[in-house]
Amino acid sequence: MSVTTTRPARPPVAHPGLRVSDGDRERAVEEIKTAFADGRLDKAEMDERLQLAMSARTAADLHHAVADLRGPARPRWTPTWKVDAPVDSGDRVGAAAAHLLTLCGLFMIGPLIMLMSAGRHAPYIRGHAIEALNFHLTVLGATLLLPITIVGILLLPVVWVLAIVLPVVGGCAALLGREFRYPLTVRLVR
């Protein structure tokens, strides 16, 4: 006949006045680190408890550092990331139209039409339409204000070339399902 004995879940608490050894301190430090890894302690509390455990001279001091750590672990908080749903083809075409309608003579009207027609239902189209509208408002402002100076007169053709090239790049980015931001744009519409 064999008799099995069960071990206690935690070591018995020593007399509070007894001095602790380095081994006792190391076991307490490991228990504190395990509690931190389980998510039961934050960094500041772990540092405080480690300081208490390493400077403990008596069993009472050491017990004060680890007394409430024994017990079930709380669930850890894990961050969640928002995963964007893939953009459907209709939204991509609408967003590309917001960029490319400006090349058909609908200078600021094209992005505005796309913003008003599909902006409430499709956030992807809304983002691209607002970006295109802001860019063309910036081009309009530059066209009106740059001729005041000689340097501005020299920069005006560069602005017009960018007003032709960048909507094509934005339209291609929209068709590929990517975000696009026009450089050097004053974002008046949000």
From TrEMBL:
The keyword Cytoplasm does not apply. Residues 18-69 form the DUF1707 domain. Its main location: membrane. The keyword Transmembrane applies. The chain crosses the membrane at residues 96-115, 135-154, 160-177. It is found in: Membrane. It is a multi-pass membrane protein. Residues 1-21 are annotated as: Disordered. It holds the Pfam family MamF_MmsF. Keywords: Membrane, Transmembrane, Transmembrane helix. InterPro entries: DUF1707_SHOCT-like (IPR012551), MamF_MmsF (IPR019109). This is DUF1707 domain-containing protein. It comes from Thermobispora bispora (strain ATCC 19993 / DSM 43833 / CBS 139.67 / JCM 10125 / KCTC 9307 / NBRC 14880 / R51).
